[in-house]
Amino acid sequence: MKVSVKNIEKLQVTITWEKVEKASEYTVFWADYDSETMVYEKRYTGTELEYTLNKPTHVPHYFYVEAYEENDVISFID
After folding, report:
1. What span, in angstroms and rounded, lies between the C-alpha atoms of 55 and 9?
2. 38 burial type by CB count under 10 A (0-12 exposed, 13-18 middle, 19+ buried)
3. What is the pTM of this model?
4. Each residue of 23-45: pLDDT tens digit?
5. What are the angstrom distances between the C-alpha of 47 and each of 9, 25, 58, 63?
6. Number of H helices and number of E strands within the chain?
7. Separation between Cα atoms, residue 72 and residue 45, nearest integer Å
8. Other beta carbons less than 10 A from residue 62's beta carbon
9. Are 62 and 40 in contact (CB under 8 A)?
10. How many CA atoms lie within 13 Å of 26's alpha carbon, on the beta-carbon side?
């Protein structure tokens, strides 16, 4: 399963992902550069299947999503 871009505008990008069976919530992580020392920032935790990042889109953005059942990661989506 992959993270997909639903909408992209000059100052924001919306990503979406498919529902994971048994997931009670999702956490979205974001970074704005790709390197060996890249550190992802937690941007969202909740039950929605999409997230909008309000940042300029003239630079690349990197995301991954974790699905949780209770407090355990049950799926990793990138």
Report:
1. 10
2. exposed
3. 0.88
4. 999 999 999 988 888 899 999 99
5. 24, 5, 29, 17
6. 0, 7
7. 14
8. 14
9. yes
10. 22
